[in-house]
Amino acid sequence: MLDQVLVQRADHEAAEGNHAAALELYARAWDSRHDEVADKLLDLVEEWEDVEAALEILQKTADGGAVAAYEALAVLLLELDEPEEALEALDAAGRGGRDVALWTAAVLADEMGDRERGEEWYRRAIATGDTEALNDFGVFLSEDPSRLAEAEEVLLLAVERGDLMALGNLGRMHLESDRPERALPWLVRGLDAGVRSVLVPMAECEQLLGRVDDAREHLGDALADGVEGARLAWANFCAEHGTPQEQATAEAEFRRALAEQEPGAHFDFALYLADRDRFDEAVAEYQAAAADGESNAWLNLALIHEDRKDRRSAEECYRSGVEAGDLQALLAYAEFLRQWGRQRDIAELVGQAEQLGADEDELAELRGLTGRG
To answer: Of 69, 98, 127, at which residue does a domain stop?
Structure first.
């Protein structure tokens, strides 16, 4: 349970500018990465701007017997994009008796891309009775198109055991698999159960099913509730399905989504701009999206540069997309190389395509482009 006395003392020290003292107190007050201390700790480090000193204090506090401080250390290390070091901190927390199996699974799967070890830790978390583990494991499985049936079984079990968030994730799984008619009933159940975060994917389903008025109503509810992603979803709705008055506000809504730092806003705004032949502005937004980790942005940048006959910039973007793990960028790059008579270079892409999950038809197409069959 969060020690509010320690938190208040830490708040006071932070207000006085005593960063080191405040950081140690926040570390000692740590209960869970989901509570207020995590945000306060990261905000303090950002204000202090002495990351090395912060890491040293957290390590010293943890080694001194405040085992939960290893979790605080892990949070900061993840913020610094140091997942292997974060994993070491979580291991120390686990050895000290903290329940970090589910968090460890997420770091392995999401930050390090080690899905095999990630699955092992998800199963450990389930075995220890973590109430959120089934839902999170179901989402993990749903990220693999070949394991959707398993994902559905796990998420259904999570629902049976009372995890209402799994209702929304069942809906999202079917939506991402282009099955809005199967997604919508689960999202409706989630909303009926009070899970307001389903409002945005529900509206997306309704748009795909031609239920525009229902989508408008649910996006309005999502905006009123401050649901994550609602502003960007509303901007896209205005642009694609809105009345003339709503369409006139679409650009302003995209800019509000950018100001609110909604994930995906740069990419979606770039699409909006490109559809209106505002390519210079679109390029800037795609570049910002790529900097935020949106791998698909590189492909769209490459296509714009190709249309502009800027072959060198196009190739640089294709290569960046491949390096970012975008299979579609790789396939488009192979066609680009074929057009310029560089079949020998295409052969080097086949192995990379396999690693990125290309199916047999895609691999056969690549081999065909090399001229070797």
So the answer is: 98
